[in-house]
Structure formats: C-alpha cells, structure tokens
Amino acid sequence: MTTRDLGYAGLEAALNGYLGLDPVTRERLAALHGRTVGVEVLGPGLILFFTADETGALQVYGRQEGEPDCWLRGTPLDLMRAGDRTAGADQLFSQRVRIEGDSGLAQRFGAILADIEIDWEEHLSRIVGDLVAHEIGSAARAAQDFGRRTGRTAEQNLREYLQEEARLLPTRYEVKELLDAVDALRDDVERLAARVERLGKRSGEVGEAQ
Amino acid sequence: MNDDKTTHFGYQTVAEADKAERVRGVFDSVATRYDLMNDLMSLGVHRLWKRFAMQLTGVRAGQRVLDLASGTGDLAARLAGLVGPTGLVVMSDINAAMLAQGRDRMLDDGRVGNVRYAQLDAEALPFPAGSFDCVTIGFGLRNVTHKERALAEMHRVLRPGGRALVLEFSHPTAAPLRAAYDLYSFQVLPRLGRLVANDEASYRYLAESIRMHPDQETLKGMMEAAGFERCDVHNLTGGVVAVHRGFRL
Q1: Which CATH code for domain B6-172+206-247?
Q2: Model confidence over B126-182: pLDDT tens digits?
Q3: What percent of chain B shows pLDDT beyond 90?
Q4: Is residue A166 part of a domain?
Q5: What pTM does this model have?
Q6: Are the C-beta atoms of residues B58 and B35 closer than 8 Å to each other?
Q7: Domain locations along chain B
Q8: Would you call A9 and B47 a contact, using CB atoms and an 8 Å cutoff?
C-alpha cells in the first residue's frame, strides 16, 4: 500500500462528492452498474479503473485483477476532448483515443467522466506527483476551456485558409451555387428526357397511323 | 462439544463454548458505534485497507460473493457494486445487532437489488459446496472460535477457481512500529472506547484479540492446511494489517 492508494481513494471521494450533487449523472452511471472501464493516460502512464455501482456512485482503483469491460487509452488532451460532444465522435473515430472492448460502453463512460467538473489535477497529483499532474491538468484545461474557445477560432482559420487562400476547398456559397446548378441541371435533364419520351411515343403513334 | 477445552478471549482463557457468547457480548455492545470507532481506532486507514483487499478479489459482474463477518457492510457495499445487477452478494454476520446495522445501512444507501442477508456462523456455513466465486472476511476471523473450521468452510463453499480473502489485523514486521502500536493499542484505544462507546472492556478485548491472532506465516499455513492453494500474503501499514489470499483449484 502506498501514497498512491490514498490518491485513488481521494479521487473516488471527490468524484462521489460531485455525483452526490448531480442526480442526472448518477442515474446515467447507475445504468452501468457493475461495468468496469479502464483508463490509461498515456505519457505519465497513469491507470485508473472505474466501476459504477447500483446507486450511481463510482469505485476507483489503481489496479484490478482481470481485464475491464473496455479500455480507453489516450493522451490527457485527447481523453478530455472525448467528452466534448461535437469533437468526441471525431476523437474516437480518428483513433486518437484508442478503445478496446465494449466501444459503446467506452464512449458513454468517457463522455460522463469528462463532464464531471472536479479538480482532476489536484487529485491526480496525489497519484502521479505534482509535476506530472500539472501537465495533465494543463492539458485538460487546455482542452476544456482554451480549447472550447479557441478550437472554434482555429477551425474557422483553417477553413478560411483552405477555402479562400489555398482555394483547395469551396466556400459554403460556392457549394450552394454548385448544388443549385446541379439541381437545375438534373431537373432540366429530367424534363428533356420526358420530352424525348413523349416525342418518341408521338412519332410511334404517327407511324402506326400511317 | 467438550466444555473442558479452552480458547482465547483476548488475553483471558475461557471455555471454548463460552467464546462465541462473549464475542457476541462485545459486538452487541459496540454495534451502534462500530463505524465511528473503526475510524478512530485506525485513524481512518481501515478504508484504505478495505480498498486494497477489494483490488485483490478479482470480482466481476455476474459473480456470487459471500462476505462473512460483514459488520456494517463496508466490504459488502463495494462488492455489490462490482458484481452488477446479475451478480449476488450475501452479507452475513453471526451477530444479529451488527447484521441489522449493516442491513439498515445498505438499504439507506439504496443497495437493494443484488444483496441478501444471512445470520450465520462461519464455522458451519448453510450453503452447498461450490456456491461462490469469492468469499471474503474482513476483521472477523480473529473472533471465530475455531478458525481452522471457518477456513475449511470457506474453502468448501468456493467454486473451483474461486478465491478467499482474509483481511485481518496481524503482526507489525518492524520493531519500532511494534512498540508504537502496542502503546496505541493498550493505552489509547481502551480510553477511546470509554469516551466514544462508553465501553472500555470491549475495546480492550479488541486490542488483546489482535495480539492473540496468528501471525502472517501461521495464518498462511492454516489456509494451506484448509486446502487453499497459491496462498499469498500482503502486508499493509507495516504488517499492522495483512490480506491473506488463497484459491480453490
């Protein structure tokens, strides 16, 4: 037994303290009763096992015998972003967060965990030491706060560059123009086809009459 | 039972037939303040000891676990979380007052789906052989009159591949720690008992019974004699507490 165990116990107490005030999240967790998720934070080499109980409280351990139902592995930044609903799916599908086992469970659990607003840095520091925890904390904050605000700006800048400067991608207006033109063309072609068919029938009728 | 046989009750020697009755007296007396006293006695560290034991259980969803000497149910509550809705935890104690406390606490916490309760004697378990994936006993074995019978019963009710965990006070491995521990146990602890639970004698018994409990190697030998294999011992807090684990193969 080491001071790390104290860290895990502290993290568990903090999480359950938070969950005590958040019945909605508790309910989401209670639905996962008995399922265990392993999280490996790449870099500091931190491993956490989370199991939800019937009441929606969490048990947090640093070791476990046997494999959990699923694994989430990623850098602190990627793991925190997995909880972001818009970016989350991209994170998971672009394989920046690696999932093993029950992927549905991993996705649900990851999203719930990342939504829990406790001082992760403070608690993780008791497990991995201040310096490393600060890096994780910084990354998490970068992802949560800075990332939320500037992520959008960066996305916009990139889009502008690709569309306006490099002309690699069309703008929304250009796409709309193109789609309208395609629609018009398709309608025109359909009308033309109908007209040809009608002409064909008429010429057939004329031929039979003669 | 032969009334001439004797056993330990703390530092006293009593007739074997009397020990269970006297232990019952102790726990009837401390039941309502058991959790508070545990925190005071161990300075809160008992929570870490129990967490550590949990990590060795290997219990997963759908399994059946028997928790002996559950007391107020610290281990049983965690186990109920791990076995999920399809699993089962049997929470048990020989003492009705302790079991009632434990059951009330579980119900108050909202743990109702996968927990059953049984008042039973660890020396004669009312379950068929091979009923459980894991059997745990936390801070209970030292109060059992015939420890070897209890260990044999734990072995019997396990499935092949199942494991038993004994979390119990043990013997500190380092001499300086032993001196401080003795001072704490015999000077501080009974006074705490008098202040908090108004029962100095019961807490003196707790301290004495810990000293009379077999040390790490002896208990490991007893587990092996009961049929357990691949037994290992994990010392916690310098051996103040130890987790013994054995498998039925």
Answers
A1: 3.40.50.150
A2: 999 999 999 999 999 998 999 999 999 999 999 999 999 999 999 998 888 888 888
A3: 58
A4: no
A5: 0.77
A6: no
A7: 6-172+206-247
A8: yes
